[in-house]
Every structure is written in C-alpha cells, then in structure tokens.
Amino acid sequence: MAINIPGPAAGGGGSACGGAAAAAVEVHRVCLPPPRTTVEKLRRRLADIFFPDDPLHGFKDQTRFRKLVIGLQFFFPVFQWGPDYSFELLKSDVVSGVTIASLAIPQGISYAKLANLPPIIGLYSSFVPPLIYSVLGSSRHLAVGPVSIASLVMGTMLSEAVSYTKEPDLYLKLAFTATFFAGIFQASLGFLRLGFIIDFLSKATLVGFMAGAAVIVSLQQLKGLLGIVHFTAKMQLIPVLSSVFRHTDEWSWQTIVMGVGFLVLLLTTRQISMKKPKLFWISAAAPLASVVLSTILVICIKSKYQGIQTIGYLPKGLNPPSSNMLFFSGPHLALAIKTGILTGILSLTEGIAVGRTFAAMKNYQVDGNKEMVAIGLMNMAGSCSSSYVTTGSFSRSAVNYNGGAKTVVSNIVMAAAVLITLLFLMPLFHYTPNLILAAIIITAVIGLIDYQSAYKLWKVDKLDFVACLCSFFGVLFISVPIGLAIAVGISIFKILLNVTRPNTAALGNIRGTQIYRNLNIYKDAVRVPSFLILAVEAPIYFANSTYLQERIMRWVREEEEWLALNNQSNLKCVVLDMTAVTAIDTSGIDTISELRKVLENRSLKFVLANPVGNVMEKLHKSKVLEPFGLEGLYLTVGEAVADISSSWKV
Fold first, then answer.
1. Cβ density class 574-594: b for 16+ within 10 Å, e for less
2. CA distances from 638 to 27, 393, 513, 573, 600 (A)
C-alpha cells in the first residue's frame, strides 16, 4: 500500500505529490516546495547569506526596556559581563594582564621596527587599541597589539614607494592613513556582514605565506644580530642574503656574541614553555628580562665597546593625536588604501582565528562580525592616536589564556602597564641594543613556520600544497604582496576548478539493501543490470553544464563498451541521482532537457532521482519535466530501479 503525502502537483506528468501504487512496488512521488512569492524567496535567501546566526533572535517577545538592554549588550559586550564582575575575576585578570604586558612592551617596540616605524609607535599601539577592544570585543582571551605579519606587510608595501629614512614624516603619515583605511574596511565587513570575504585566504595560503614571511623577517634581523649599518630595505631572499655577505666588514663580533647568546636564551625558554605549558610564564617573561639584562650589559660595557647599536632616545608621554596626519588625497592615497586593505584582511584573519581558538577551549562563542567591527573601530581610533594596525596576537593571547585571564579586563591591565612605561620608564630604553629586538622578532616569527601543517597538506590535498608552496616561494623571491596574490589566485582557481569540473560517479547497489554507493569506493557495491546510475556532486550551472553533458555521455559510452566486452545485458536506462545537486540555473535545465533528447534517440530511458526543493521547483516551472512523464521522476534511486525493473517484467 502506498503512503499518501498531501501536497501540490509535482512534475510534468501532472501526478499529485503522494504515493502511486504498483503491483509490487511502492513509489513515492517527489513534492514541490510550498509556494512562495519572489519577495519572500529573496528575503529568505538574503537572511541565509547575511544572517545565518539570526543575531536578532534575542529581541523577540521582549519589552522595550529589555530590548534596549539587549541592544547595549549586543553592541557593547562590556554591558554583558560587567554587572557580574567580581574581585576574584579581577585578581585573575591582573595577573594575566601584567604577564602579557611583560611580553607586549618588548614586542611592541620590536614590531614597530619591523614596520620601519619609530619604536615608540609600537608602545602607543599597545595602549589605546586594547582599551577600545575591551569595550567592544567579545573574546575574553584575545590580547590586542601589533603583530608580526601585519607589521611586515605594512613595512614592505610602504617602503617600496617611500623611504622611511629620507622621508620619515611622509612614511608615518602613510602608516597612519593605511591603518585608518584598514579600520574602515574591517568595520565595514562587520557592519555589512561580509566576513566570508576573508575566507579567500585559505589555510593552505596562510601556511605558506606565514612561513615565507617568517624566513624573510628572520633574515632581515641579521642586520641587528650582526651589527650591519648599511643594509638593504628590500624584502626578497636574494637581495637580503647578498646584503649580508656584501657588508662583512661591518660585522661586529661583540654584537654577534651578545645577539646569538640572547637568541639562544629566548629560543630555549620558548621550547621549555612548549613542552611544559604550566611554565608558560618563563617564555612570557623572557623578552622583557632580556631587554633589561641586555640594556644593563650595554651600559656597563659602552665605554669599551662602541660598536653596539642602541634604540636611542624615546619620548615620554601619552599618545599624541595624529588625526591631522591622515590624508585623503595626493599621489600616495592609492598605496595607503591598498596597504590598509591587505593588512586589514591579514589582521582580521589572525585576530578572529585566535579568538575562536581560545573560545572553543573555554566553550563560549565569538561573533565574527562583531569582532570585525571591534577590530575595525579599534584601528580607526588607533590611527587618530599615533597607533598603527593592531589585532589579536596568538603569542600574547596564549600567554593571556595560560595566565588565567577571565575577561578582557586583562587588556586594560596591560594598557595600564604600558601607560606607566610611557609616562615614567622611557629613558631606561635609551641603551637597549637593537640586537635584542632582532632576537625577540626571530623568536616570535619562527613559530609561524608550521611544517606539520604543510606536510598534512601534502598528504591530504596536493593542490592545496601547491598553493602553499606558491605562497611561500612567492614571498621569498618576488615580494610579500605578490606572493600572497599568487596564492589567493591559486585558491580561487581551485574553487573555479571544483565548480566547472564537478565530480561525477557511477553508483552500484550494496546487496540486500536499497543503498547505492560509488562503485570505485565501495567494493561490495554491484552494477544493476541494464541500468547506469550516475551521481552529480555539485550544483549544475552555466559554468559546468556543457562539461556535465559531455561527461555523462562519456559515462554512457564507456558503460556500453564495458557491457559489450563482458557479454552483459544491454544498457536500457540512465538514472541521474540529484541528491547532491543543491542548485540549478537555466543552462543546467537546458542540459537536463538536452540529455533526455540525446539518450532517447539512442533508445535509452532517462530518469531523475531525488531533486531537492529549489531544483524541483525550477524544473517544474520550466516545463522540462513534462516530457519525462509519470515514470521520469523518483524520490530515491532504489524506487526508480525497482519501479522501472517491474515495468519491464510486465
């Protein structure tokens, strides 16, 4: 007995959506989705694209006052956790905040040098941005400040057009303007809920890019470790190495001995903390301790050895306003916008990935779009207060997490520590040697070389591995932006390849079941006599419709040749399993119609199995189902095979 499922008419044959009983086979007809207007469909589709998490669900059935409170909590997460904040939480946040400050201060100075900016800018960037994020950010463990990758990209792109030694004021204006545009871009992505754009930076792309950048950054630090004065500003492998060996007369043995010694110390503390996470504080405190110790050593030996280069004078005081240094016209505006967008994407990718990593470890959620808005507004405010691009740093966030941070108050504590440094401790950095900054940068970026992920890419997906290599060698031998562009291009090519050349498979029946699976994968799946069952594992669009028609006809030809070679019964029916066809356009519909005509001319029956709702709706509206008749559309492959086989026996 058939099971009747009420619904509208389905298919060109005019049969109702319900059961159609045969003598021995039960067949369920395919239903159309409920009728909806074009406006309703568009609204539903836009909601799925831009609001997959339904951010306004909390406002339903609430009073006006409650909606106001929820709105404040939504835009300012501080109102969510603030009322329940306690002294116990404060103690944990103070400990973690002081700990990350010990790492943030030397890293801030070092990363500013990496971006070819005055060292003081790195400290400014570790003061204002964390305060902004503590009000707007939704991650409890993200520690905000300058990061190596964004610093490297900004320094590379800006220095290609403007010399930071000959035109320092213009270079600084470009850095602040690029930061402003980075903030606008990031906040716009969040407000417009376009975060999926940053997904074009795939994991494979980032693995190669970061490894290449880490190598280049480390080699650039040989200037500080060897004491070289005249060093290239280029960021390619060959110019950097040639600059190192062309200026051997400038090498300073005192600098080399001290620099290598501190580098070994920092790498050793890093290894200890990696092997024993409970000793995280060792690697966290090592950079600041190294700065203090190296400064004391330089003060003690400066009268005997004059060759060790130091940071020099750093001004005391709070961040000076820099809104007057932003410019929105002139020949370098395009460069500032381009640099801002690229550094904005990279910093967003790192910040959101880090935030979600630690949120998953503590079982809470981080809203990606809210994070984009928070990081964007943070950078916009930073550009007006002498700060450059900042985001969540993995190294500082890991220290923050291991230090027991409970809320973003740890960022406020860190900012307070930086404030004290800016107001009272700046003269102490006068004799800090450049070599210790180089050692700190090398120690930080060496962790970006993730060879295990590269090996995994090789094992799992060779095309991803190629994208990784292209990104790596592009950064090493061409330039940082072009290397990244090449890798993104390969990632997009991979997407286009998957769309234009989707997988198709011949299915067989697993004996004793109604299950049909790929014949090449499941060895216990067997061919069904007289049937060729094909599955298309992608939407059918204009970009792949011609390919699919040609590929399906090739399947038919190869199947007929195999049957003739093995003295099997002739092919009579082709079943197209559309379970994985999630969408179809007019070109795809024409392909279905054309396939039916071609196969009928070869005396082969062509039927469709399990088209999903929106695909079924388009097929029905296009009238393409009418020629298929009552026996051309089935709910499952099993029902198609059983029903057609029984009709042949009658």
1. bbbbbeebeebeeebbebbbe
2. 10, 54, 9, 14, 22
Which class for 489: exposed (0-12), middle (13-18), buried (19 or more C-beta within 10 A)? Answer: middle
Question: Buried (b) or exposed (e) across 413-447, using 16+ Cβ within 10 A?
Answer: bbbbbbbebbeeebeebebbbbbbbbbbbbbbbbe
Residue position matching structure tokens 């066809």: 581
Would the CA dihedral through 262, 267, 268, 273 be positive or negative? positive
Give the residues of the chain that fall short of pLDDT 50: 1-16, 18-23
**End-to-end CA, the chain:** 19
Cα–Cα distance for residue pair 353/200, rounded to 1 Å: 14
- Contact assessment for residue 101 and residue 418, using Cβ atoms and an 8 Å cutoff: yes
CA-to-CA dists, residue 7 to 33, 364, 633, angstroms: 9, 42, 16
Q: The whole model's pTM is what?
A: 0.77
Alpha helix positions (H), 393-525: 394-402, 409-420, 434-445, 451-460, 462-477, 480-500
- Distance separating alpha carbons of residues 312 and 299, to the nearest angstrom: 12
Residue 540 φ then ψ, to 5°:
-105, 105
- DSSP-assigned states of every residue in 234-299: --SHHHHHHHHHHTGGG--HHHHHHHHHHHHHHHHHHHHHHH-GGGHHHHHHHHHHHHHHHHHHHH
Calculate the alpha carbon distances from 374 to 142, 497, 599 in Å: 12, 36, 58
Q: What is the pLDDT of residue 567?
A: 86
Q: How far apart are CA 145 and CA 567, in angstroms?
A: 72
d(CA 629, CA 638): 19
Backbone φ and ψ of 271, nearest 5°: -65, -40
Measure the CA–CA gap between 17 and 626, rounded to whole angstroms: 15
534 Ramachandran zone, left/alpha/beta (phi>0; psi -120 to 50)? beta
Distance CA 610, CA 642 (A): 15
Instruction: Name the residue among 577, 578, 574 with its Cα closest to residue 615.
Output: 578
**Segment 522-540, tens digit of pLDDT:** 988 999 999 999 999 999 9
| Other C-beta atoms lying within 10 Å of the C-beta of residue 121 | 24
- Which positions ≥6 away from 260 have C-beta within 8 Å? 225
CB neighbour list of residue 610: distance below 8 Å, 6 or more residues apart:
30, 577, 578, 579, 634, 635, 636, 637
| pLDDT, position 339 | 94
Structure tokens at 345: 């994407």
Helix (H) or strand (E) holding 369: helix 368-383
| pLDDT tens digits along 321-343 | 999 999 888 889 999 999 999 99
Measured N-to-C along each axis, helices 168-191 and 368-383 cross at an angle, to the nearest 10 degrees, of 150
pLDDT of amino acid 404: 81
Contact 178, 186 (CB under 8 A): no
Q: CA nearest 243: which of 252, 233, 253?
A: 233
3-state secondary structure of 521: coil
Tell me the one-letter amino acid at 288: L
**Residue 43: enclosing H or E segment and its boundaries?**
helix 38-50
Of residues 335, 344, 285, the one with CA closest to residue 100: 285
Residue indicated by tokens 């001995």: 257
Spatial CA neighbour of 527 closest among 564, 567, 559, 561: 559
pLDDT score, position 20 = 43
At residue 25, the pLDDT reads 61
